[in-house]
Design goal:
four-stranded antiparallel β-sheet, alpha/beta, TIM Barrel
């Protein structure tokens, strides 16, 4: 059945790990700095996490998983891909089977942190404001150009992934607008984009981060979430679930507490249980409580809510 997971720092914080363990989650995931990607350092991070009773389900590196050099085919693309390949090999050696990436050379776009969920500060996105920005990489890129870059990347990675026993989890663009942002198209902005990506690589190497938040943001292009869960579970593509709610679909939204957005999150949790999903479900982003209550409060609140939904689904389905 699904397992709950939380983000833990790659600079080991034993109090944070103890907190995660006390919440009763089964798994952790972490993002490492490029300077931390040596084999023995990765092994040390994994060991420290597991010493606190957590299984390290996913480990990623921002320098590789969100690399403009790879996404835009910049001159040093092959060097970065080689570094990514080495990182994947190390993950296979230490027994971490999933790493995540997203085709976002400018990472996540946000208008401000001035949104509000029950008065708590939260991420706010206004698509009109985002699309008013100028070019971020000196020119306009074409969608097919980015798909060619994606295909090139997968061709280079597939042999290493198979040999290492590691799978890539593809996250959608956030926000998943059909428009380009900064002159760069948002490659994964709908369900059909996932189908196209998966036509380029088999399920034993490429799956997805099913981000409920992004699916809710881009409701018209992603479609019905339970149907999407069933569709991709049938193809063995579900590797990670991001559990997040928002106030409304684009063109404007605020990230909310799980019980405070426009979606009822229970049907999604129930569907993950129904299809026999065995990966992790993790809190994605959360509004922030005021100091001194912020540290851990958002995670604790969300984990408790997710656990209640999961236990209800298990009880109903049997």
């Amino acid at each position: 059945m699904p397992r709950l997971s939380v983000n833990v720092a790659s600079q080991i914080d034993r109090d944070q790990l103890a907190f995660a363990s006390q919440l009763g989650v089964e798994c952790g995931f972490t993002w490492v700095e490029e300077s931390q990607t040596g084999l023995e350092n990765l092994r040390s991070i994994k060991g420290a996490i597991e010493d606190h009773g957590l299984s390290l389900y996913m480990m990623s590196c921002m320098a590789y998983g969100k690399s403009k050099h790879i996404h835009l085919a910049l001159p040093d693309r092959d060097r970065v891909i080689e570094d990514y390949q080495r990182f994947v090999q190390h993950l296979g050696e230490i027994g971490v089977g999933v790493t995540t990436f997203t085709w976002e050379p400018d990472q996540v776009w946000t208008t401000s942190q001035d949104g509000s969920s029950r008065g708590a500060s939260a991420r706010y996105v206004d698509l009109d404001e985002l699309t008013s920005h100028g070019l971020t990489h000196g020119r306009t890129y074409g969608r097919e150009e980015l798909w060619d870059n994606f295909a090139y990347f997968m061709e280079k990675m597939i042999p290493v992934l198979r040999e290492s026993g590691v799978r890539l989890a593809l996250h959608p663009n956030d926000p998943p607008t059909v428009e380009s942002l900064g002159g760069v198209p948002c490659l994964i902005h709908g369900r059909t984009d996932y189908d196209r990506a998966f036509s380029l690589a088999p399920a034993d190497v490429l799956g997805m981060e099913f981000c409920c938040g992004c699916w809710l943001e881009g409701a018209p292009t992603f479609g019905d979430i339970p149907d999407g869960i069933r569709h991709f579970a049938a193809g063995d593509r579900l590797l990670i679930v991001h559990f997040r709610n928002v106030s409304a679909p684009l063109p404007e939204f605020t990230e909310t507490f799980l019980d405070n957005g426009f979606a009822d999150m229970y049907p999604f949790m129930r569907t993950f249980v129904e299809v026999g999903y065995q990966g992790t479900i993790t809190l994605d982003h959360t509004p922030r409580f005021p100091e001194p209550y912020d540290a851990g409060a958002g995670t604790g609140y969300a984990v408790g809510y997710m656990r209640a939904l999961l236990e209800r689904a298990r009880a109903e389905i049997g």
